[in-house]
Structure to design on (100 residues):
């Protein structure tokens, strides 16, 4: 993964990235998305589907599951903010969501 993907984004860059994506919200220095599934098993299946895309990017979401509700939070931990890598992962997550 090129180091430029880990450069912190400016507020303007973050706004532009968010405008290009549906359902992702900015909270502080993180982006998040809340999802609902028909049941717990579907929620867990979706989360499991994120393993390979996340590992391929070597970037992983913070995940919270409460029954059929999944909350995903993205930010680059070692940069303590948002980078292009977070938005690439958001795209991979949305690709997986389209399969459910």
């Amino acid at each position: 993964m090129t180091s430029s993907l880990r450069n912190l984004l400016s507020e303007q860059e973050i706004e532009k990235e968010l405008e290009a994506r549906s359902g992702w919200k900015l909270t502080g220095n993180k982006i998040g998305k809340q999802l609902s599934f028909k049941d717990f098993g579907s929620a867990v299946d979706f989360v499991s589907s994120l393993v390979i895309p996340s590992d391929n990017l070597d970037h992983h979401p913070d995940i919270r599951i409460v029954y059929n509700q999944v909350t995903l939070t993205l930010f680059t931990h070692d940069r303590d903010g948002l980078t292009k890598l977070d938005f690439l992962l958001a795209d991979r997550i949305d690709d997986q969501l389209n399969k459910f």
